[in-house]
Amino acid sequence: MFKKFILVLLLTVLGCSNINKTKKPVDYVNPFVDSHKSRWFFFSSATRPFGMVNLSPDTQTEGSWNSGYLYDSTRVRCFSHIHAWQLSGVAVMPTTGEFKGHLGMDAYQSSFSHDTEIAKPGYHKIVLDDYNITAELTATQRVGFHKYLFPKSDQSYILFDTGAYLAHSPTRKSYVEKISDTEIEGWALMGPTRRRPKATFVYFVAKTNQPMQEFGGWEQGVVVEGETTSIAGPNSGAFIRFTTEKNKPVLLKVAISYTSIEGARNNMNTELDHWDFDLIKSDAINEWNDWLSRIEVKGGTEAQKVKFYTDLWHAIQGRRIISDVDGKYCDMTGENPVVKQIPLNEQGTPQHNHYNFDAWWGSHWSLNILWSMIYPEVVDDFCNSMIDMYENGGLIPRGPSGGNYTYVMIGDPAAPIFATAYNKGIRNWDIDAAYAGLFKNAFPGGIRDRAGYEHGPNPKGGGMIYYVNRGYVPEGLEGEGYHKDGAAMTLEYAYQDWCLGQLAKALGKTEDYDLFTKRAQNYKNLWDPSVNFMRPRNMDGSWLSDFKPVGEGFNTIGFCESNSAIYTHYVPHDVKGLAELFGGAEIYTDSLNAAFERAQGNKFIAKHGQHSISWVDYENQPATGMAHLFNYSGAPWLTQKWVRLIKEQTFGDITPYGGYNGDEDQGQMGALGVLMAIGLFQEDGGAAINNWYDITSPIFDEITLHLNNDYFPGSTFTIKTKNNSAENMYIQSATLNGEALNKSWFRHDVFANGGTLELFMGPEPNKNWASDINNLPPSNGK
Question: Which residues, other chains included, contact 670 with Cβ-Cβ below 8 Å and sequence gap of 6+?
Fold first, then answer.
């Protein structure tokens, strides 16, 4: 009886231990969040942080929007290896039975069910029901690794649909060659797009763990008859055929490169020289967990933890490495592609990676802050990538793709991230080259002179000649680009000038500092006191007639993907000066608060593509600093209130039908969600000398940020809350490193040295905490 009791007790303890087993950060990530409708680069599974390979199933293969993996789709069209900003490539599909490769994806696609599907960081499993094939996917940085369980068949195929239309543009032509019974190689030429103006090559090498019985393919959509060793041309593709046994896996490795077939082969030989699928799967998941574990949280709900780590996961994987393992990358800034070499360190490895990425537009309120706190080495890499492009093509980019300038969005949003990096001590890059490029961008002839996607030789759409001579950009600009919105340009240029001024000051360039600091006040040239809003100006200097702060459609005249109600608050470097235009801090607070009250009914967002209709729009970048502005007007309890509500109502969903509102934008909304959850922000993007962090209301009981000691002397910075709950959203008091803190901010050097911020929470605002007008966060760097 006693032995039976001990056995039952032991089983109970083991059972409880298993139930209460601590989940790791990677276990909380849900790749399916908001996957019902988004962009080609949004969905991720079999990839590494910033991986060149982003291998996943595609259910929709045409279009930059509503493409890739869409949750409500019922059929898989292929597994492709590249889901990036204006880049795609190497579509692979296993099939059995009648050969249909030449008929296209509509013919050979397969149904699947979420019931038999698993997706997590670094891994995807899916059953192709039409073929009774179980497919598993994982990856190294530059190699996709496939594991297929075919049924017993002598008609088991792996299709390489290299000529398929994938995402952004048709494939112009492709080439595949059989090298041996276990290896093929080839390339595809992606056609140009409105954003990426030059056709771009992707090269690949593929190997299998068992010999193929047949190699063949199709050209111009027609199967090539007879024995062949190569396939080439438009609308072409290849297949390899096997005789398969049930439960005996066929393994496939596909390495890619943007420089050459030899580069792809070297990537494979270096990163994946074996056939242990489970080892690579485990390595991938563990690598993700290492990155995610740099922030550890306690407390909160299960759903909040799922969203937090899913946000953090998105923040460190949307933008993609495009350099090979040996540091070679393709430069497309000139007339023809040129292979460049990143310098090697003493160990013979590249000093940095080279990246492909969408615009930095708005990232000063998301990625710039988060990365510079937790992943400073990533900031170094991106700064070096931009300097590479400056040295290759003469301009620091705002969003390159495949080595091309895309001229995506407006202005020079690289200026804030360089200033943030330098002023936080992240400086493993050539400051002289960076400053020269940023200085050039701030005058006619620089990148600001180009409106969105304005590729021509004589750009006029950025209006810099007007900005320099008048202090504002008028409406009615010439040029062929998009987003020729003078008021938005004026406000963004003014902030970018201020960032450049802070960098100049740090470098001892006094005249430049004075020049750019003066230009940073140009936002005042759009203030119309008769309406109390920023108002566009016509070419003759008059105010735009028929002015309305909100409107209908994509944007109102003058404001890029937004309206005056939102862009009026776009003065992140000088909130005090902006409040004075309104008539003082109290009047400004009331006006700003009224905007949030108007927007609460639509969850603080406007439907994508209708950005002009809302007073606040957390679906798009220009509004994403608005809720934190109350810290600067003496009403920090309103920042605490609105940040909490936005975090829950706008970004709290963890189903496939919400969470990012359809546009996560390569980590920006994920990073913003992380910052809201931990209760830290930087309204000026962290660009100031001796910069600071704004404090708001965290959602967790304890947050530990592990610091990178290659950059910061401290070990951890911890944020603790007492009496925290959904109702207790208001800060009653605070201590910083054991000393009372009665202000809503603290300096970066305190963070960098490590310490503890403790916040005592309650259900009602404490309007005495951090509201003293003399203790507000700095404005204009002071």
Answer: 310, 311, 312, 313, 314, 315, 318, 366, 660, 664
